[in-house]
Predict the structure.
Amino acid sequence: MLEREGVAAQASRLSAGLVRTHYSNAPEARLALAGLKWFENWAELVGGEVPFWRTGLLNPVAREDHDKLRRNVAMLQAVGVETELIGPEEMVELEPAIHAKEDDLAAYEPRSGYADPGATTHAVAGAARRLGVEIAEGVEVTRILVEGDRVTGVETPARRVAAPAVVLANGAWSVPLARAVGVEIPIESVGVRLAFVRRPPDLRPGWGGHAVVLDRAHGAYTRPEGADHSLLGLSGARVPLTAPDRYDSEARPDAEFEQLARSQLALRFPSFAEAPVVAHRSGPIDITPDLCAIIDRVQPEGLYLAVGMSGSGFKKGPAIGQCVAEMVLHGESRTVPIPEFRLSRFAENDLIRGDVYSGPFNLVH
Ligand SMILES: Cc1cc2nc3c(=O)[nH]c(=O)nc-3n(C[C@H](O)[C@H](O)[C@H](O)COP(=O)(O)OP(=O)(O)OC[C@H]3O[C@@H](n4cnc5c(N)ncnc54)[C@H](O)[C@@H]3O)c2cc1C
């Protein structure tokens, strides 16, 4: 594996690390469920300390989305996701600090939670090294080498590396490399911002102190961060970037973002309104026109794509890695069917469509 900087240098370190299976389309839900199984069986499949906190996920939606939620929960159950509809009393039972109206409706997933994104990525890299994978850090791929209609390797500033198969798994940075061999990848770079606040006293302390809440009605999400803090984000509030590396300068969280994140979350947890912000960060995501990943084998022969994760690739990462490995070794993915994620869907106008919720900033499936 060739990595321009170091393991977990970019999105996979900066991620919010939510591990959920609630999606509004079946293909993504299947991948997320396959990813969840890795987090649940970490010690056996990866080894070492488990970086996953199973807090449960609450996914409340706006009144006008109740029918969508009912349809999506039925779709998810058919896919194998453990989820149920709950009303305000159960919401308050799970999270006593929550503000729930009489007619509120949420999906609840007991198996979901969050993971430490950097630790997760380093653990996977460590397990790969133990199995004999060579990870060369500080080595940038500058060109994909092709002979005839086949990939033969890649070029780096220092040398050429011969390879019968090349997997591009480098987010928006893949676009110019692919374009140089005739593959057009429709990815835009955007920045995503997060704020970290001191956890209000009416929420339980601890790493697993409160559930992950993805509040579709108000476009905000939260999860615990350490024992005494909570992470806040706005689903889909994204800042376009002129280049994928420019998130720090072009999408730096400002006071306006922090205030908006707190006030949107306070509509669900009123005590977050005054929670002091202690830190913030932003990171790059690589979005496609339907906000779903591209996982495919393309021409020239031997070129594979695992890009365009669209701000939702952390939880699915282990499963996507497994699918790509199966494509390379066996010619097709066996863990999860992935034809919906093919690159050609954009030209064919056959995008992955979900029963997407309406709330503010809701650009996530
Ligand atoms: C703030 C934020 C919050 C998020 N929240 C969530 C969430 O809650 N749940 C979730 O599932 N997902 C979330 N995501 C999305 C998720 O983190 C990403 O989809 C995922 O980490 C992408 O992994 P990746 O390996 O494709 O990209 P990256 O982790 O960005 O890795 C790409 C790597 O490629 C390297 N690279 C680039 N160009 C080259 C080159 N030419 N040669 C060699 N190496 C190169 C880079 O250095 C980088 O390390 C979030 C993302 C952000 C930024």
The mean pLDDT is 96. The first strand starts at residue 2 and ends at 3.
